[in-house]
Amino acid sequence: MNKRILLVDDDIVQLKLFEKLLSTNGYTCKIALSVDEAEQQLINEIPDLIISDYQMPVKNGFDFRKKLLGSDLYKSIPFLFLTSVNDDSFIQQGLDLKAIDYISKGTPSAQVLSKIDNLMQSVREHYERSLSEIKVIAEKLNLRNMPKTAPELKLFEIGYFNRSYQDHPGGDFIDFIKINERYTFVVLGDVMGKKWGAWFFSFSFLSYIRSAIRLCVFEGNFSLPEIMAKLNRVIHSDEILSDIFSTLSILLIDDEDGKIKYTGAGDLPLLKYELNKDTLTSYQSDGILLGFSANNTFNEIELELKAGEELYLISDGMIDFEVNGAIKSDLNLLKSKLHDLKHQGKSTIAIKESLFNKTKSQVDDCSIIILSKKNPHEDQKTTN
User: Fold this and answer.
1) Residue 33, SS3 per DSSP
2) DSSP one-letter string for 188-202
3) 31 and 15 Cβ atoms separated by less than 8 Å
4) Confidence label for 211 from pLDDT (cuts 50, 70 and 90)
5) Which of these, 17, 110, 226, 267, has the minimum number of CB atoms within 10 Å of its CB?
6) Whole-model pTM above 0.85?
7) Is the pLDDT of residue 383 over 50?
8) Helix (H) or strand (E) holding 113
9) Neighbour-count burial of 45, counting CB atoms closer than 10 A to its CB (0-12 exposed, 13-18 middle, 19+ buried)
10) What single DSSP character describes residue 86?
């Protein structure tokens, strides 16, 4: 869990002292000299803790706290008051506003750190208990947006990997729908948004996707554009999902003739490592986000893989990163990494370990599906 703190105080000297103390002890700090600045900071990023002075001009710490309590998005952020006024009435007023505690500006540094460390540990333990309970309930209800294993295929191997943002359940979802020994659908989607909201909606999207594929196949229809179009119309007409959008990539694998078909909706390009050219080629779908318009049209791209070649389906967390507090995206950087790894002859597991290195800065859910062609002269096993 990240340890991000928003510090709010109109005294720049005091602010910088607190920032230095906390940043040198493992915390990431953002500072604001006023309530208005703090509110702008919250638009860009939600911290794990807010420490705010009581007394500030124009809008004071009490005004700030009252506004946060009126917001569903911000009211649950742990809040500490910082004060130079050891007045019982001030302290009580802050505690009545559901502040967890207060810190006097004269408190020794060691005590400040201990108080904040203990608070963050308590928040972490509470979060882990809640997450564990929700996961247990989800398992009992068979709610899962990531499969336990990939299907075994004759001609292909499938590897898939996911790491959610800040260990929260997220909006990325993966599914494998094996129709029979010949046809298998591979699904990767990303519900817009982060954390719990996106996670809950991912089950609705997955349910529609599975139903659309099954119903079309039952009618003998394996056309990916038609499956996607029907799925899109249903999602667009769903009142609950009317303001929720999702990207989607679908592969249809023919495990007899070795052909692969692809379509997408608002997704990142499908990437293919081509052995003879030693390059990564991008294949971009035409479709826009699922549910964005009732009459979206979708295209279908047919591909073939040779032994040693791979296809990559990716969510946008794979290309997003943070630089000086700003979120950047760079598809070419990911392509360069994948090319270098393949050029070095790295295995699927080695690629996964490199791309999902825990030291890598992560700003969103990260998911990748890797489809490779088996070497007919080797007895290879599927790697998950």
Assistant:
1) coil
2) EEEESS-HHHHHHHH
3) yes
4) very high
5) 110
6) no
7) no
8) helix 109-140
9) middle
10) -
Of the listed ranges 20-24, 45-49, 355-359, the least confidently predicted one is 355-359
Which tokens in the block code for residue 151? 């299907």
CA distances in angstroms from 146 to 93, 100, 149, 174, 186, listed in the order given = 46, 36, 9, 5, 12
Name the amino acid, one letter, at 189: G
Residue 384 confidence (pLDDT) above 50: no
- Asked whether the predicted pLDDT for residue 112 surpasses 70, the reply is yes
Residue-range domains of the chain with CATH? 4-138 (3.40.50.2300), 144-373 (3.60.40.10)
Number of residues in the chain: 384
CA-CA-CA-CA torsion sign (125, 39, 90, 114): positive
Residue with the two structure tokens 């309530």: 35
Query: Hey, what amino acid is at 169?
Result: P
**Structural tokens at position 73:** 């998005």
Tokens encoding 284? 């971009």
Q: Over the stretch 303-339, which tens digit does the pLDDT of each residue have?
A: 999 988 999 999 998 998 777 667 788 899 899 989 8
- The answer to whether the CB of 114 falls within 8 A of the CB of 103 is no
